[in-house]
Amino acid sequence: MNTHRRVGRTLVLALTLVGTGIAHAEDFALTVPVHLSYLMPPIQSGRIECLTASGSALNPQNMIGQGFIPFTIDSSTGRFDQNVVVRFNAESGKNPATATHYFCRFILSFTQANGIPRSFVYGWGSPATPETTGPFATKPGAPFVPWVTGPLP
Prior knowledge:
42% strand, 153 residues
């Protein structure tokens, strides 16, 4: 089933995310413009994860579908400035038409000083009780918003 979804919110860390989307073959497609700058060279990639639910609270009982898309950060400039599209279908047995809300968060992947790769999930937990710290500080004065959430039209 194809549904058309249009979503808009702003997420700011050292980046800004705004989600909008129109589904094609998938039940859901959220286009997320990602604007990253001034990242340290060990930060090599990231990923945007989005979920849809049949209510404004995110829990396993009301989750309809989820998906993610990885992206690569230019380590020579510390920048990533592109739209990423997170496409996914409703889980088996779930009706995509019952989705009323979306939830998106981001993950940064980097190499530690000892050479071991690591990822950090901003917004680990739930939108109601997100983790508010991480290994990378935001620019002074930049708000920390680990989740982008809102109603689906």
